[in-house]
Write a structure and sequence with these properties.
By secondary structure, the protein is an alpha/beta fold. The chain is built from 9 helices and 13 strands. The chain folds into 2 domains: 124 residues, 3-Layer(aba) Sandwich (Udp-n-acetylmuramoylalanyl-d-glutamate--2,6- Diaminopimelate Ligase, Chain: A, domain 1); 113 residues, NIF3 (NGG1p interacting factor 3)-like (Udp-n-acetylmuramoylalanyl-d-glutamate--2,6- Diaminopimelate Ligase, Chain: A, domain 1, 3-Layer(aba) Sandwich), CATH 3.40.1390.30. A hairpin with a 7-residue loop joins β6 and β7. The longest helix has 20 residues. The chain starts with a helix and ends in an 11-residue tail after the last strand.
């Protein structure tokens, strides 16, 4: 398989057209005609991730968070982010990013999160104009439950994650919205969709007031995406297996936040 074919395989699972306008997805480092035998999937590019790719002989790394954004204006060793991209190029390790397109895609991270939470008949909170069945966030039914039971379900689905919530623990919850990553901007969408609770990451102090009574369940960004990305990696592995390409999920935990 060539890098160009890897990019095409990723796009079949996470069409680039679904990416937000500000995002940067697709092939970010590497030559299209470079051969690929092994692929490493990671939440983001770190020195430890590149070391793991070298250790396992990976020719490409598929990251969720793009390592190149407008803040990088030059590829030198003068800054950590740019130096990592430069090192990947020097090591001939191709970097492919699938970010908000992977969040939004059918079978992508939001669908996987909804499945982990037991959300049935999930539909997008903010449907894509290109595909109404895809888009940011998900919402659907969970059967009769309480907010406390939903919190326990989140803890069970995302082991080790410190979970916080806002709302009456005995409040009835039958319809749940969720969003991987930073989902604070979808609070209004969750309320408009008739959700009884909303599960997401990176919520701020005043989001509790902005929710206007909608119970919120918060789990760390990296926990939400690492669990769902690992599950998605199995699908990529199945897609590339006929080409004889090995796919593995990174052992490296790239979450920069540490518990005290």
């Amino acid at each position: 398989m060539l890098v160009a074919q890897l990019v095409h395989a990723v796009e079949r699972l996470a069409p680039a057209v679904l990416a937000e306008e500000w995002d940067n997805v697709g092939l970010l480092v590497g030559r299209h005609n470079q051969p690929v035998r092994r692929v490493l999937v990671a939440l983001e590019l770190r020195g430890e991730v590149l070391a793991e790719a070298r250790e396992h002989g990976c020719d490409a790394v598929v990251t969720h968070h793009p390592p190149i954004f407008p803040s990088i204006a030059a590829l030198t060793d003068g800054g950590r982010a740019a130096e990592l991209v430069l090192r990947a190029a020097e090591d001939r390790v191709a970097i492919v990013a699938a970010h908000t397109n992977l969040d939004s895609a059918r079978g992508g991270l939001n669908d996987l999160m909804a499945g982990i939470l037991g959300v049935a008949d999930a539909r997008p909170l903010r449907p894509s104009a290109d595909d109404p069945g895809a888009g940011l966030g998900r919402v659907g039914g969970v059967g009769a439950a309480t907010l406390a039971e939903l919190v326990q379900r989140v803890r069970g689905g995302f082991p080790g994650a410190p979970v916080r919530y806002v709302g009456d623990p005995w409040a009835r919850v039958e319809r749940v919205a969720c969003c991987t990553g930073s989902g604070g901007s979808l609070i209004d969408d969750a309320r408009a969709a008739g959700a009884d609770a909303y599960v997401t990451s990176d919520l701020k102090y005043h989001d509790a007031d902005r929710a206007e009574g909608l119970p919120l369940v918060h789990l760390p960004h990296a926990h939400a995406e690492r669990v769902t990305l690992k599950a998605w990696t199995k699908g990529l592995a199945r897609a590339l297996a006929p080409e004889g390409v090995e796919v593995r999920f990174a052992d490296t935990d790239t979450d920069p936040w540490q518990a005290a």
